[in-house]
Amino acid sequence: MIDPIEQFHIEKIFTIGHIGNQEIAFTNSSAYMFGAVAIISLLMIGGVSQRQLVPGRLQSMAELCYEFVANTIRSTAGREGMRFFPLVFSIFMLLAVSNLVGIIPYAFTIASHIIVTAALALLVFFTVVIYGFYKNGLKFLKIFVPSGVPIYILPLVVAIEVFSFFVRPVSHSVRLFANMLAGHITLKVFASFVATLGAFGFLGWLGAVLPLGLTVALTALELLIAFLQAYVFAILTCIYLNDAIHPGH
User: Fold this and answer.
1) pTM for this model (two decimals)
2) Is 187 exposed, middle or buried (0-12, 13-18, 19+ CB in 10 A)?
3) What's the pLDDT tens digit per position in 11-34?
């Protein structure tokens, strides 16, 4: 039987060194991260280097990516949010490219591991906290005190706001991780049905038509989800950054 979890295994490629008794290794996850960065770098450097009045395909794609992220930031965090453009753009492009690469059969999806999505979510969380206090001082705490709330329920509302604020990294990371994990497991299960039924000869191949069609449909759906999850992660990042720029409700 085909193991649908096998595609998520971390495999060591070579050892970088040791810190105490802990081995530091370059893994398949690291390789796909470097690969995603290489693809993004080639796209952006190639697009910027052309600078034609009538843009070619590469330049058009680079400009489209830039404008898409820039418009997302402006619409959620205002023009002042553009100072965080490098952060949001890097996160969005890394997730979008790595998610799309992960759809390729036998490829590895870095966002299918909670440690990766949690690291990105914590990066956003601490950026919001540090910049919020840096820019606003103690006024940043106004995000926990919604305006217009009656005084007799204010303590309860403040407690809920504080709890929801510190839970943000959990929901921010688990949403992406769970969607990518579940989607790839579902794809692998339906693909295994095709391979298993195909082993029974002609009748098996007839029976494999339905799971094959579902596999193709799910692959198309996963392509959409791969982009949407990168977009959702990026737009939530912008919304959280807006709290640091404009604290209060």
Assistant:
1) 0.88
2) buried
3) 888 888 888 888 888 999 999 999
